[in-house]
Amino acid sequence: MRNGLFASAPAPEPLRAGKAIAYVQDVYRDGYPCVVLENELVRVIVSPAAGGRAFVFEDKARSRNAFDTIGALRDDVLLQPPPSATDRIAKYTHQFPAGFFNRPYTVTIASSGKRAVVRLHYDAPDAYPNGAAFERTLSLTPRARYFDVEVSATFAGSDAVARAQREVIVSSLTAGDPYAQRTVRVLPSGGALAPAVPVPLSTPAADAPQNGVGLYDAASRDLVMEAWSGVPSAASPGALQEFAGQLTTSVAARSLRFGFETAATFDAAEERLRAFACAALPDGERFAACRAHGAASAR
After folding, report:
1. Can you tell me the distance from the alpha carbon of 127 to that of 121, in angstroms, rounded to the nearest whole number?
2. How far are the Cα atoms of 134, 156, 160, 162, 181 from residue 130, in angstroms, in the given order?
């Protein structure tokens, strides 16, 4: 299984202070090159041959990974095809839609140095209902503990289903020791993400962000966050599912931001998530609560 413990990704050249670089390397030594975005603090490893998923979001100083072996950034679609009438084991074997987890994406490194920017693309002729083209752009700035993802999908056809279809990005986050998850808690998003199954959410504060969710581990003080913006009009941003300290999010939005930090307490983690989620919003979308918490200047 792919994860941060088995990845070896020395940069092809020394990483200079104040830089963010992108490069291609066979970090798993399996013949399938990955693309790496890296700065002084964090490293992101994306596997184009595995559906363009990111299996590593590493805090370099602590050698900790915020993504589990399912990975993050898996393309899927909101409207699924009708279930097969002959598949009698799907409900036992498919905990969630597989999406395009094993498709080969093309990669272009658009920038490296002052900013690391990588573009991935895949044409999916079998995407419901008439095929689609998926694109995403990952960017990492120097000294940042977060990276941004801009996503887009073009669905073929003009029928009602094609017009209503949306891209969904599925990500599996993890915090703390994967073998001792009793100290992990989910930071709620103010109800913006509906639980797909019962989730042990804390009661959200009145000013909890509507565009972010987090996973906090009190033992390691890991704080893993995801925020989004650009949700299509009249659409729900998605859903979340928690199992054994892992958080799987399904988000239909044009922009995503993933952050990996530490927090001394759960209250401090909640405050950091508020600031993180507010900072992920474009200026025109920031709500009053952002400014109330001084997060408007956190970008």
Report:
1. 14
2. 13, 5, 11, 7, 42
Spacing of C-alpha 147 from chain mean position: 9
User: Are residue 143 and residue 180 in the same domain, yes or no?
Assistant: no
The predicted model scores a pTM of 0.86
**Dihedral sign for Cα atoms in the order 74, 199, 68, 139:** positive
Strands 64-65 and 184-187: unpaired
Decide if 161 is inside a domain: no
44 and 130 inside one domain: yes
Q: Whole-angstrom Cα distance, residue 247 to residue 161? A: 29
Structural domain count of the chain = 2
Q: How far apart are CA 287 and CA 208, in angstroms?
A: 11
175-192: average pLDDT? 70
Residue among 192, 184, 232 nearest 66 (CA): 184
Predicted local distance difference test score (pLDDT) of residue 86:
78
Q: What are phi and psi of 162, to 5 degrees?
A: -65, -40
Residue 137 is given by DSSP the state E
Structural domain includes residue 98: yes
Averaged pLDDT of the chain: 82
Same domain, 75 and 124: yes
Which residues is 67 bridged to in the sheet?
Answer: 173
Q: What is the CATH number of the domain that holds 111?
A: 2.70.98.10
Written as six digits, the tokens of 70 are 């399912």
Work out the number of other CB atoms within 10 angstroms of the CB of residue 159: 12
> Are the C-beta atoms of residues 165 and 79 closer than 8 Å to each other?
yes
- Full domain range(s) for residue 57: 1-79+94-147
Does 111 fall in a domain?
yes
Q: Summarize the confidence of residues 67-93 as an average pLDDT.
A: 82
